[in-house]
Every structure is written in C-alpha cells, then in structure tokens.
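Protocol step 4 of 6: structure prediction from sequence.
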Amino acid sequence: MEPFDTGAGGLLKQPRAVWATAGASVVAFMGIGLVDPILPSIAQGLHATAGQVSLLFTSYFLITAVAMPVTGFVSSRIGGRRTLLLGLALVVVFAGLAGTSGSVGELVGFRAGWGLGNALSVSTALAVIVGAAAGGSAAAVLLYESALGLGMACGPLLGALLGDADWRYPFFGTAFLMAVGFLCIAAFLKEQPKPARRTSPLDPLRALGHGGLASAAASAFFYNYTFFTVLAFTPFVLDMTPYRSGAVFFAWGALLAVFSVLVAPRLQRRFGSPAVLVGSLVLLAADVLALGYGDRTTAIVCTVLSGAFIGVNNTVCTELALGVSDAPRPVASAGYNFVRWFAAAAAPCLAPKIEEWSDVHLPFAVAAATAVLGALVVVVRRAALTRGAAESAAGHAAEDGVAVFAN
C-alpha cells in the first residue's frame, strides 16, 4: 500500500472546507505537546511536584482512550461535521478553563475534558477531509499527516513563546486558535452523508478479537509507553527555560513530521512494514537508553533524534493496524487507539514514580525495555500480521484509507 503516492498539485488544490479541517487538526495536535516546555513553570506556579504535573498527560490520554470506542457511535448518528464541531467546542471551553486553574487538580480535570474534545475532533477529522478533498484519498491522507506533524512540531513552540511570559497563556492561545478553527469549519464545511450502518461502542472492542489487530495494538501499547516517557518526563530532566525546551521539542516534532510523511513510506516499500517497525523500535530503545544515561548534550541530541524513530513508528504501526483485519478501518482504528492510548496515559504517571523509587535514569531504562517488547511482539506475531494484511487487502481497497486518523 502506498498511501502517500500523490503529486503536490493534488495536495495543494483543495476546497476551503479541507483547509479549514486541516487547520483545526494542526491546532488539535498542537495541544499534545503544548505543555512540554512549560511543565516546570506549571509545577512552580501551582506549587506542584513533577509527578502531579505529569498527570496533565495522564488525564488527557486516559479520557481519549476511553472515548475512542464512543467516537464512531457519535459520528455515525449525528454526522461527521457535527461531531467535529462538538469536539472543537469542548476543546475551546476546557483549554480556556485550563488557563484559569488555581490548582494542579483543577488543571488536570480540565485537561481531561480537553482530551474528550480532542478524541471527538481528531477521530473525525480525516474522515471529513477524505470526504471533501480533491485529488483522492492519497492527497487527503498526506494532507492530514502533514497537519499532524506540523501540530506536533508547533505545539512546543507555541507553549514556549507564550509560556515564557506566563504558563497560563498557551492555554488561552490554544482556545483562541481552536475557536477560529470552529468558526471556519462552521462556515465552510457542509454536512457529509452519514454511514449506512451505525457503529456500536462495542464494535472496536470486538474487532480486537482478531489476532493480527490485537498484536498490532499490543506492540503499539509498549511503544507508546516509550513515546510518552520521552514527551512527558524529559522536560524535567533537561530542566531548561521554556524557550530552550520549546526549541528542542520543535526540532523533535520537525523530525517526527519528516520521517512520518516522507521517510516511513519509502522504508516500507523497500523493506516491508514489519521489518521497518522492528528496526525502528530497537533503534528507539537504544536512543532512549542513551538519553537517560548520557550527559546533558547527549540527552538533548537523543531527545531530538527520538522524533525520527517515533515518526516512523507512528506511520508504520498505524498502517499495520488498519490493514491487518477485515474490520472497517474506522472500527479497527478505534480499537487500536483504545489500547495504545492507555500506555500514553500510564507513562507520564509512572515515570516520575519510578524516579522517586530509584533514580532519574531508571525511567528511561524501563522505556527502552518497553520499546524492545514492542519489537518482540512484531517478531513473534509477524506471521499473523502479514497474513492478516494480505487477506484483508482486497476488502479494504475501496475504503480509501479513511481511518488513518490515529497517528
């Protein structure tokens, strides 16, 4: 499968509705890394520990994970446009409220509401883009992947620029940008046809009964623990000003975007998805281990370099999950994300606890071990992953990649 084989003309010549949705997606993904450069500032401003502030990620992704099976249920009943607008409205409200927080508990709670809005908007955005895009699904998927990478890169930068003045400003800034996105989508995006079949919240969980999909989800679970140890715990280890931390994570996000959109598809065509995923996970494990046990300069370099491996893993692992079973791609994607986002919720909570129990190095050793476990799952279950993908390829050919939204 070559989802990114499209010309620049097909990518750029899009209706206003597509650009509005892609722009909202950029802001939605910005929200993931927005707090990275200001985590120490938030801890200082709210008199909180690193473990308490890391719960900003835990509450966000825990609600996102729980909400994943529900997103299809909602969108299949009220339509993609209304689901997207509902999600954006929730982000506007809870991002704005997060900026008014008087305690870390309030901030964690508002981030949970933000996670619900993000689940509804992000899970619907690519389906909306594909339905409205010119140039076929290949251009739509590439546009969405580009929005994802741009958001992941710009989130830390926005957090640094606004957070250097006050840690509250990035939350207000995100609420404002998402409100602009809400108005653009309300103005330019027309309602699309509802799916012929309504989705049950249990459908994604039933889809995980497929061995190949369950294997891909298990590998992604271990990998995401590594991913979010880097994202949520490293800012405390680097202990930089918001500007410097924002620059590090901007470079990290830029590598993630380039390797996700441009490098991963080429590696897949040459070596095959399982081999690329195993190799990338092993390299990520080595990188994270060096990050945890090296000096300050090594930690900065390895943090930035991890973006390359994470970008490859995001693309390859998600495509494996979506192509390995005969479940509709939106359903397979929801089940896959339901599993992997639990690891994204666990890592920010556990890494500071592991440091308290031992030292600052061990959380990265654990993260390296989980990356290796993710690779071992692919090695052991390679036959199920490749056989399932071959069997389901024909069934998915007409779906046009609608559910690659989960990256």
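Step 5 (inspection) to follow. Residues 242-271 form the longest helix (30 residues).
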